[in-house]
């Protein structure tokens, strides 16, 4: 590598980040989530881009927004107030803070929720995100979830604008559409994901479909992905449920989701080791207000990771980044394979970070697919060729790092450093320096910054000796080298600082790093260059 390269393109160069400040919140509860105000909203011309994908899902709302004009004064006033704001979620409180100004922070106390009876289920965790409704475009909203509840707050006052319920299990994550800010998705331990629209009122009576052989509407509740008798108060309505445990739905808890910025699809991942890509059709007409349901994704595969998948992110139109937890290696499986008997494998395999390409996007969305928004095809169906039903195929895929199919191709695959707990990551895409990955494990004293554009392609698939079934020694040596570990720049706490890190975020085009700690502390590192 040349010395003339910038630091983010040369792993041998040190990073330019220096510790700038530390902020201690009034309550010393553990910080579990940090949500910076979206950078895509902070320009004076960003108003139209926030709603650029609305017509993919709601034609009526899209036509209305075309005729509306923005009040530049009010918009810029809102941007100037919140462009440096942070939403911070603790275990007992939610904060809206302005770390670089004298604006007084807002504190919201979370409701008390009884501890779960199941001893293996973790404590309820708050998830937090920013949203915006075109009905009040100059009043940003803060959406946070606690247990099974969704709360929608006015960021100016901290007052509750809406309270929704619908999931039959604890909510695990929340994500807002990047170009339709009135839409958000929540994932849950009830095997479903639910997509909401902030421009619609909550449902007040169930409108469930018939369940054959019965000829009357189903009386099942939210645990089965259906309507509830009273969805809540204020604003927000569930318009689509991605159902689990049927056909191609998730067979385990759903842990993460990511909207595509330009296509009507959403990717989800979960405890069942699968990544799924779902089609989002036009929502039903506002006069009908019918809940839509889907249980057949366009894409589904268990061949990308060997353990539960914790997060999924879109980097480009057809390239995704996913990461998984560590996986157990049973003694029986170690003895049954020549590869594992040759290599000294630890009892736990570390989690992996995989960059892969969805090859079927042009099949479902060919050129001109959205020219006629009124007659766009609404029923899209995927295929099940990615499901590993063959036992031999599953054994082979356990040891082959690069596995390609008709609908996806693994581009790069790295493993995290071996640690006792799973990693928390934050992905920053769309910046000029390239997509960044920021990760840490709970209770650590450092975090690691990775430039995804430096990922190397996967090596060729292993070759096996035909006479004894063992791996080609050249490939065995290549797979045992350390270049498969995820590498980047470590950013550490000061020696005199006794804090421990829990979560992280990156903003300002990759020039500002924020980390939250176990005792209500926030650390800020700034690019000195």
Automatic annotation (TrEMBL):
Superkingdom of origin organism: Eukaryota
Gene3D superfamilies linked to this entry: YVTN repeat-like/Quinoprotein amine dehydrogenase
Coiled coil: none
Keyword entries, A-Z: Repeat, Transcription, Transcription regulation, WD repeat
Pfam family for this entry, one: WD40
WD repeat start-end pairs: 247-280
Region Disordered: start-end pairs: 199-223
Family stated for the protein in its record: Belongs to the WD repeat ESC family.
PANTHER family cross-referenced by the UniProt entry: POLYCOMB PROTEIN (PTHR10253)
Protein's UniProt name: WD40-repeat-containing domain protein
Gene source species: Rhodocollybia butyracea
């Amino acid at each position: 590598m040349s010395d003339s390269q910038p630091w983010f393109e040369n792993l041998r160069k040190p990073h330019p980040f220096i510790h700038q400040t530390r902020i201690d919140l009034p309550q010393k509860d553990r910080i579990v989530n940090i949500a910076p105000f979206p950078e895509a909203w902070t320009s004076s011309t960003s108003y139209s881009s926030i709603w650029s994908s609305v017509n993919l899902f709601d034609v009526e709302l899209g036509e209305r927004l075309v005729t509306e004009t923005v009040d530049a004064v009010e918009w810029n006033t809102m941007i100037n107030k919140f462009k440096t704001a942070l939403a911070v979620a603790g275990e007992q409180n939610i904060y809206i803070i302005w770390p670089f100004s004298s604006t007084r922070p807002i504190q919201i106390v979370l409701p008390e929720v009884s501890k779960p009876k199941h001893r293996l289920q973790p404590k309820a965790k708050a998830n937090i995100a920013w949203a915006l409704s075109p009905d009040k475009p100059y009043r940003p909203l803060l959406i946070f979830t606690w247990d099974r509840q969704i709360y929608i707050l006015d960021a100016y006052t901290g007052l509750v604008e809406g309270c929704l319920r619908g999931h039959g299990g604890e909510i695990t994550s929340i994500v807002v559409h990047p170009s339709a800010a009135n839409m958000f998705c929540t994932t849950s331990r009830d095997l479903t994901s639910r997509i909401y629209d902030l421009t619609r009122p909550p449902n007040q009576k169930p409108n469930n479909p018939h369940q054959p052989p019965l000829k009357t509407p189903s009386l099942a509740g939210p645990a089965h992905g259906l309507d509830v008798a009273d969805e809540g108060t204020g604003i927000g309505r569930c318009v689509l449920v991605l159902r689990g445990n049927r056909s191609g739905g998730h067979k385990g808890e759903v842990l993460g989701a990511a909207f595509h910025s330009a296509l009507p699809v959403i990717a989800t991942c979960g405890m069942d080791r699968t990544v799924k890509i779902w089609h989002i059709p036009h929502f039903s007409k506002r006069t009908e207000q019918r809940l839509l349901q889907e249980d057949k994704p366009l894409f589904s595969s268990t061949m990308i990771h060997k353990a539960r998948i914790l997060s999924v992110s879109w980097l480009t139109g057809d390239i995704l980044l996913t990461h998984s937890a560590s996986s157990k290696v049973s003694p029986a499986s170690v003895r049954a394979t020549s590869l594992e008997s040759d290599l000294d494998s630890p009892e736990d395999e570390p989690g992996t970070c995989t960059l892969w390409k969805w090859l079927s996007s042009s099949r479902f969305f060919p050129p001109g697919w959205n020219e006629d928004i009124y007659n766009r095809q609404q029923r899209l169906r995927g295929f099940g060729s990615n499901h590993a039903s063959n036992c031999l195929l599953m054994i082979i895929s356990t040891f082959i790092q690069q596995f390609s199919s008709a609908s996806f191709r693994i581009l790069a695959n790295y493993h995290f450093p071996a640690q006792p707990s799973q990693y928390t990551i934050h992905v920053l895409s769309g910046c000029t320096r390239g997509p960044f990955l920021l990760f840490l494990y709970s209770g650590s004293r450092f975090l690691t910054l990775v430039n995804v554009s430096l990922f190397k392609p996967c090596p060729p698939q292993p070759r096996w000796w035909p006479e004894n079934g063992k791996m080609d020694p050249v490939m065995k040596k290549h797979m045992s080298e350390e270049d498969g570990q995820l590498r980047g720049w470590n950013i550490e706490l000061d020696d005199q600082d006794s804090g421990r890190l829990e979560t992280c975020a990156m903003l300002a085009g990759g020039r500002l790093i924020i980390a939250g700690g176990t005792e209500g502390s926030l650390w800020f590192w700034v690019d000195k260059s």
